[in-house]
Amino acid sequence: MLFGIGYDIHRLVENRKLILGGITFDYHLGLLGHSDADVVIHAICDALLGAAALGDIGEHFPDTDEKWKDVSSSVLLLKVVDLLKEGNFKINNIDVVILAQKPKIGLRKHEIKNNIAKLLHLEVNRVNIKATTMEGVGAIGRGEAIAVQSIASLHENS
Known about the structure:
Elements: E1 2-13, E2 18-20, E3 23-25, E4 30-31, H1 39-51, H2 57-60, H3 73-86, E5 89-99, H4 109-120, E6 127-132, H5 138-141, E7 145-156
Parallel strand pairs: 5-6
Antiparallel strand pairs: 1-4, 1-7, 2-3, 5-7
Helix pairs in contact: 1-3
């Protein structure tokens, strides 16, 4: 079994859509980034790439490349899945924790879970999504940013 950790954080700003795990939230702020800034998918990509020892999301999809400007992070995740297939890796499971003061994530966790499972071609019971606030502490607690931590496990196909 191979394991990888992913982490991402983006600032919340006006005039951007808030997309988490490929799901659009009705919120007055969105995440700032070169792509759609979906921190959930970015953290999952890094966890998967790390487990397979394939570097990180910045190496594969650099923010200096206009090709990735405003792209859906779901596209990035599908490309990571292709890299895993090429390396003969199979995803075992994904665990995610979303750190956000606002908006409340709890009511939408099931949607995020289903979408991630679909993108990764996994059974829904192989994906776990958790959410927590920062109790008002730091940039996340002040509602200035959202961060995500993720862990992935893989095994090599025989």
